[in-house]
């Protein structure tokens, strides 16, 4: 966790690492608590977008529908979760990748 150039002796560094790893530190200022909550929410949203993007591509692949580079780029660059969910639903029954975007 800490760089080897740390000025802490090995035993002290180990104790500090154990404390940090096992503690559930709560920020004391409202600003830091809000920043932490915002970061968590953004991370969760990014995770949902990534997961849905992967799901769209997986469904297409499993159905034998191979997107072109342009189509794949359109899917992977999309950050609109609602649109990705629509594409996922369409991927289940689409006869072609083009139908995904109709």
From TrEMBL:
Highest taxon of source: Bacteria
Name of the molecule in the record: Transposase YdaD
Species whose genome carries this gene: Actinomadura viridis
